[in-house]
Amino acid sequence: MKSLTLPPRRFVCVAFALAGFAAAQQAASPLKLVLSQLLVQTVTKNGKTQEEFVPVSAVHPGDVLQQSVKASNTGRQPLKNIALQLPVPANEVFMKADESVYRAQYSIDGGKTYAAAPITRKITVTENGKTVTKEVVVQPSEYTNVRWVVPTLNPSDSVTLTARFKVR
């Protein structure tokens, strides 16, 4: 089984890749962002299957990782229309995003455009010797980014949003 050890710099790289966070993370910004990642393990206790979240030290193909971004307003004014984005890491496949508070939007073009699921795209195929354009549903495994737009984050409030990814 192939193992991938995550260097401490991985979180720094992911943090810089969060394009939506770049402007918000300036020194004077009242928006504080914390990115975390945990390994999701399924265990059986007392005959019941449940999930446990443990710190990531190494990952293997098939492992499920949960990334969370916590946004806190440390200022005195409400913050409006905060776009919180997570890119899908190159060695991982998107599985699902938390939509319990805010509806997630997804990208299939590296974060240039976003839409709610299901995302569709047009493809050109040849059927019976004729070129035909069809609309097909994009599988979540093809998503490159996930984002949530928080309409208002009041002073002293915070929100935590999560997405899960599977290691290739």
TrEMBL record:
Q: Which keywords accompany this UniProt record?
A: Signal
Signal sequence span is 1-27
| Tree of life domain | Bacteria
Q: What is this protein called?
A: DUF11 domain-containing protein
Taxonomic placement: Bacteria, Thermotogati, Deinococcota, Deinococci, Deinococcales
